[in-house]
Structures are given as structure tokens and as C-alpha cells.
Amino acid sequence: MMNDKQPELEVRVKKIIEVDGLKFKDLNNSGKLEPYKDWRLSPKERAENLVSLMNTDEKVGMMLINTRQMGLSQKDKSKTSHDGVLDEAIVEKGENIFAVNKIMGTTHTIEKMHLRHFIHRDNWSPAEMAEWINTMNEVCEGTRLGIPCLIASNSRNENAEPIFGMNDAAGIFSTWPGTLGLAAAAKGDIKNGGDASLISQFAQIAHDEWAATGIRKGYMYMADTVTDPRWQRTYGTFGEDPEFISDVIGRLIDGFQGENLGSQSIAMTTKHFPGGGARENGFDPHYEEGKWNLYPTPGSLEKYHLPPFRAAVEHGTASIMPYYSIPSIKKSVVQEFEGEDIPFEEVGFTFNHYFIHHILREKLGFTGYINSDSGIVNKMAWGVENLSEAERFAKAVNAGTDLVADTNDIENLKTAIEKGWISEKRINEANVRLLTEMFTLGLFDDRTYVSPEHANSVVNTPAHWEAAYEAHKKSVTILKNSNQAMPLTAEKLDGKKVYVEVFHRESERAASYTEKARKECEELGRFTLVNQYEGADIAVLFLHPKSGSYFNATPGLLELELCENKTLTALDGSTYQETTLTGMDHLKEVCDSVHSRGGKVIISVNITLPWILGNVESLADALIVGYDTFYKPQFEVIAGDFQPVGVLPLTLPASEAVIAVDENGDCVSRNDVPGYDKDKYMPEGLQYAYKDSDGNIYQLGHGLSY
Q: Which of 308, 319, 476, 666 could form a disulfide with 269 if both were Cys (CB 3.0 to 4.6 A apart)?
């Protein structure tokens, strides 16, 4: 059945033609109505027609997605066009860490290299982003076939310190706690007899903000189950409970995409198939030391890691991103899926035909497209390092990868096609999948351009920010509350002086965060603040530990204790110093000083990793955790203005003994099993979860209330 409801079409370069009393965009200036211009046809029919009209260069460009900077981020305005909106700078290969190939200006990249997928990492206002995307599409409209572009982004609605490739942008859209905080809040609601509808509300609000700005593709969310506590990317996950993560992923896809992918959708890329949590002692596959996924436990892949991806497929996720890592034969036992043994080919999952074709497409029924992670042909080409870059393209595309991320390397993909390593049929298949999404999203019709003014008004909707703030409050998790140290009611605060300080690995951040925390505390108007701890009756101390670095391996294992200048042994046997929190001696001084006057100490730890809390738990009368949670909502919970809801979305390890690694590189607790189940495999006498001085066990789901 044909759709014959006339969409409102806007063109900026080409003309509108009339056929049968209806209007269509004449995207190739032919004056005729080819099927791809006919909005009455199905997206797939239109995509197939368009692919038949495309030349090889256009098909190659369609299969690459690259980071694209806005003109506003270009300091040299002579290297911009369209009144400073588009960045036209040329960056030579190797000039910066992201210029793996020579980067051309925006117009050249669209017109001559034929790229149509771009990753947006800048963080300007909604109106400025909308104007930029509109201008990109205006350039696209002027090309031979008038194919629009699709802008993708990593998540933008969670509060976090910026890290390239994980949280490129925060604070412009409604700002919620980190994903672990969303999990803590939603799991708390479930514990109190509710459900995870907070996640659905989050997704709907974020959807509206993204759609208004014209960002129509989300590189999100992480469906990975956390099983190795040292994994740097833990903070971008929803924790360690596969059943809960599956529910969350389904709600997120429904909220962003709608019941079916359509012209109002934000298309989602669920990552990182088949689950990045099963790390080799926490090392990340962004560097060579972390290139292996380990499965030493029978059934772990099917039981813990794959369920969220099954949910993603069932809810119709538009695309799936495989992880960089290689399944290790040597350090795994045979894994099964639906009664069949899984053959492990030791190549990264993007190159892994069995996982993509057999498990994802045939077994799970996935019909969308495969979007590789960034840099798989030049940097993180694990398992295929011996192949040329053109051969790596061929291996990935033939394994089922349709879109290769963060590259503009048209030459090597074209070489692979010209040498006959990839068939024309496979190239066409990938292009049809990619273009079907664009047609479905309405990018060829009435969704090409958006209103910058509307973008600002949607993002600034007070109800969005109020809902986000409520989630911050709900995320606060109380781990310990000795002798009812909290809530700090008016009665308990009467005549009492309160000292507030923030600790961080970086002293400059600690100082600016302390200023912010004190200001937000004053806004609440409940505490009498003092600037010196020596005279304080109560101390509220916020700790922001950091460990390791996302793109580089630590010399030894990632440190999870809160420590300063701790001597550690590197993997090569040498020693080095590690600090996860600066000012540990000062922290103890503050606590001892307040305790010496019979006062109370409340410590809040920011959970981005499953920290080992032994060094600070004993200092605190009350211990709470946040997850990139704002300070003010934490003060509201501390003061008893808000009844605590949050619970732990993952288990905190008892000590270094429960995550110790022997000389063979084997961990005493299983790398592929979530914290709540690790005790099934622990040696006699070791309990995985931390137990505090009050007898509370810091395991999945723990959270006290008043």
C-alpha cells in the first residue's frame, strides 16, 4: 500500500517537481520522478533504486563515518565557510591523534569524498548545532544525487567529566546522572515496588532534545554487562545485572526510536556486541594489552553477556556496534549459544563472521546494520594486524560490517573492491541497509532541515531539567549510616557548623569542585558553613577518585583502592607510584579533627568504577555514593529533604585479595562473571563483596533508607 500523505518539503538548492498533483524533491535535477524521490514508496524500495543509480565512489563514501568538527570550533575563521558554520580546514595525516588519514574540509568531504555519515562531538548550543546540521545538508543537497547526511553522536544527557569517545559532550542538553546513576535510581524504584519507567522518561525527553537539533543517530547505549571490576568503561554501563540491563536497553530503544523506526525516531546503535565486560583483568581494547575477551566460566557468554543484545534486537535497534576485542581460545572454555558450540576465531568481533552472521543475524534475528567501532582498520585491528588496511576493510565488510567508523579512508575500501576482495553484491547490500535507515528517518523528505529556534526552546523546557534533577536525587545511594548519623535534620544541625570539601585526583579540579559544592550547599539554606575544618562539628566530604586512562594501559593492573602515591608492581616487575585520590592524609586529618570534637563525618564517593572502599569507609559515620550526581541533590538527601531511593547497580569488591591476579595472569575472581555471582567461583574463605564495620554488604541492590 502506497503512502500518499503529502509531506512538507523544503529545498535549498534543488527544485520541487509536481507529479499526479503531488510534490517531490528533484534531488538529481532530472525533472523526472525516479523511485528514490517518491515518498509514497517504502524506504527499502527507494534505497534499492538509489543504490542502482550510485557509482562506486558514492557507495564507498556511504560506508564510512568520520568525526566532523563544527566551524565554531575552528579557531582560524579563514578556514571556515557559510559565515563560519562549516569547518574547511585541511589536517595533514598525523598532525593530531585523530588525523589517521589526511582530513579534508567539510565541503570537499561531502562533495568529492561522498561521505554522508558524521560523528558530532562538539558541544555548542542547540540552535548552533541545528544550524550546522542544516548547512551540512544544504551542501549535500547540492550534490549529484542530493543524498542527505546523517549526524551521529555519543550520549549527551549524562553528567560526566569529558573524555573523547565516551562523553564528548555534556551539560547542554538536560543533564542527568551518569548511566550507573540512572541504574541506581531505577533499581531503587524497582526495590520499592515500582519499575524502571524512569529510564523510559529519560529516553523520551532525550529523544525530543536530539530530534529538535537534528542529531538523528545515537551511538548508545552500552548494553555491556560489567564482569571485570577494573574495566575503565564501567561508568558508561548500567551495571552488572543482565536482566535489568535488558529491560533498560529495551526501554531506551523504545523511547528514542519509538515502537518502530520512523521519521520521528532517533536511530540507535547498541554497543558493544557481544559484550565488552569480560575483560582480561580490566585492560581495555583501545590498546593492545586489552585486546582479549575471556570466558573461563561455562555458559557465561550466553547467561551474562548476550541477553541485553537479544533485548536490543527484539526492540528493533537500528544498528549494532561490535567490540574491538578478540575472544580468547587459550583463556576460555567452550561457550555455547542455544545448544550449539561457538567456534572462536581469534579476530576482533567486527571481523568475526560467525558472531555477526550466525549469532546476531541468524540466531537473534537482527535485521539492521553493523557499525564498527572507531579505528578498526588502522589502530585497533586486533587479530588482523598482519593484513593490509585494504584487506582489513575486506575482512570486516565480508564478516558483515556495513559502516566503518571514524575514518575517511576511501582509498583502501575502494582498493578492496577493485581487487575483487568484496563483491558488488555485498557493497550494494550494505548501501541498501544504510540508505533504508536514512529514508525511514525522513531525511530525504520533510526531516532534512530543522528549526534552530525550536531546538533551543525544546532543550530549555523546564520540565526536562526538573525530571533530570529528580533522577539525581533518586540516584544517591546510602551504603552506611552508623547510629543514624543522617539525615541531618534541623534539630541535628541546630548550632552546628558544617565543613564541605571535595577531593579529586587533580588538585585544580578539587578546588573548583569544592567552590561549586559549597555554593550548592548554601543554595539549600539548611547548613551553617565554615571554611576551616578545625572548628567544624560536621564534615561533608565528596571524593572523586580516578584511576588509569581510557586510551593507555597502566604499567600494572588498574588500581581500585582510594590511595595516594601507593607503590605498585608493573607487569614487567618494575615498581611505580599510583594516586587515585590526592590529599589522603588531609582527608584523614579532617575526619580525625571532627571526630575529636564528637562530630560526625559524611563521605560521598563518586562511583565510576567499583572502588575498594576500605581506606575511607572506616573514616565515615555515614557513607553515600553518587554516580556523577550533582552535589545539591546529595545535600537534599543528607538533610532528609528527600527519602533515599538509590541502590548499588554493581558489587564493590572486598579487598585487593578478591581481585588478585597470579603470575599466569589469572584472576582469583572470574573475569566473565558479575559481582553478585562471583562467590560461586571464589576460593574457600574469600567473600567477593565488601562488608563494612556495621555489617552492611556492598553488593548489587544494596542501599539503605531512613
A: 319
